[in-house]
Each structure stands twice: as structure tokens, then as C-alpha cells.
């Protein structure tokens, strides 16, 4: 049976620089490569995977708000530095009530103390961190198979 889900992959600030940005933390893959892999994975399931990156907090908020009317079933989000600062993006996700997985390329818990707190993790269905670009693929596979809990 084809999977008709619509999944939104959101990338926060500076992730447009993947491939050149601190590869010791974030790996060598570019964002375009990662997004192409995710789109291909989704297609294999017959699902629609749309990716969006922004360095601007309000654009991420507006994209999240748009999921209220665009048929998005699930969100995979790497909020990047906004993970540790943005009550506004957290509130947008809470408002939409869309299930989401939080992804980080690096293991934020093995890094500076300010990266240990996330404004998102307690709302997320799950969190993947430290597995590099593969983390997005695992999150997407999860999203493709996700069934909301009843009640
Ligand atoms: C990140 C971790 C954040 O602390 C950092 O600000 C990022 C990327 C990650 O994917 O490991 O920009 O979210």
C-alpha cells in the first residue's frame, strides 16, 4: 500500500553551510545531498518529503504555522542553534500539535554545556543526536512508519 504521508524536514540556521562548516562536528555531506537522500527515501515509500532551511527564526515559525493547513503529517526538525534559545519555535510546534522528531548531527551532550538544554526535546516524539547525517534518515524512516497513539 502506498504511503501517502507528507513529511516536512526543517533545518535551522547555519545548516546551509553543511559540508564546509566544522566538519569535525557536522560531517562532510552538504545539505543538498542530505535533502536529496531524504527525498529519495520518501519516494521509495510513495511519501512526499519537503525540506526547508532558514537562518531566520520567523521564517521557520511561519513554515511551521503553514503545516496547519498544508496537510503535513509529521515534522523532522534540526533547530540548530535555535534549539537552545527559541521559545517562539517551540510554541509554534506546540500550537500545530504535529508530531515531530528532533535531530542533531552532533552529540550535543558531549559538547559545551549551553548545548545540553533543548526547548524542544520534551515536546518531541523522540530525539536523535550524534549520528551525523544518518540521524535524518533514521528520523524519516520513523516518521514514515509512525502511527499516533490513540487517545
Ligand atoms: C546542531 C547542534 C547545535 O548545538 C548547533 O548550534 C547547530 C547544529 C547539530 O545538528 O548538531 O547548529 O543542531
| Percentage of β-strand residues | 15-25%
Secondary structure: helix percent: 25-40%
- The CA-CA distance between the termini, in Å, is 25 Å
* Strand line-up in the sheet with most strands: 2-1-3-4-5
- Give the ordered list of helices and strands: EHHEHEHEEH
- Supply the helix-strand structural class: alpha/beta
Short recap of the structure:
The chain has 151 residues and is of the alpha/beta class. It contains 5 helices and 5 strands, in the order βααβαβαββα.
Notable traits:
binds 1,3,4-trihydroxy-5-OXO-cyclohexanecarboxylic acid; 151 residues; 5 helices; alpha/beta; five-stranded parallel β-sheet; globular; 17% strand
Report on the architecture of this protein:
This protein is α/β, with parallel strands linked by helices. It has 5 helices and 5 strands. It has a 5-stranded parallel β-sheet with strand order 2-1-3-4-5, covered by helices on one side. Strand 3 (74-78), helix 4 (87-96) and strand 4 form a beta-alpha-beta unit. Helix 2 (31-45) packs parallel to helix 5 (134-145). It is globular. It starts with 5 loop residues before the first strand and ends in a 6-residue tail after the last helix. The structure holds 1,3,4-trihydroxy-5-OXO-cyclohexanecarboxylic acid. Residues 14, 78, 80-81, 83, 104-106, 108, 115 line the site of 1,3,4-trihydroxy-5-OXO-cyclohexanecarboxylic acid. 1,3,4-trihydroxy-5-OXO-cyclohexanecarboxylic acid binds at residues 14, 78, 80-81, 83, 104-106, 108, 115.
Amino acid at each position: 500500500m502506498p504511503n501517502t504521508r507528507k513529511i516536512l524536514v526543517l533545518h535551522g540556521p547555519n545548516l546551509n553551510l553543511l559540508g564546509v562548516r566544522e566538519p569535525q562536528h557536522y560531517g562532510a555531506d552538504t545539505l543538498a545531498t542530505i535533502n536529496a537522500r531524504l527525498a529519495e527515501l520518501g519516494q521509495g515509500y510513495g511519501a512526499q518529503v519537503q525540506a526547508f532551511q532558514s537562518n531566520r527564526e520567523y521564517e521557520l515559525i511561519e513554515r511551521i504555522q503553514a503545516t496547519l493547513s498544508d496537510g503535513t503529517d509529521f515534522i523532522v526538525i534540526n533547530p540548530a542553534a535555535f534549539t537552545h534559545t527559541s521559545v517562539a519555535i517551540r510554541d509554534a510546534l506546540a500550537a500545530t500539535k504535529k508530531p515531530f522528531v528532533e535531530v542533531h548531527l552532533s552529540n550535543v551532550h558531549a559538547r559545551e554545556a549551553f548545548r545540553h538544554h533543548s526547548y524542544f526535546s520534551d515536546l518531541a516524539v523522540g530525539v536523535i543526536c550524534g549520528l551525523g547525517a544518518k540521524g535524518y534518515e533514521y528520523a524519516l524512516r520513523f516518521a514514515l512508519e509512525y502511527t499516533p497513539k490513540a487517545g
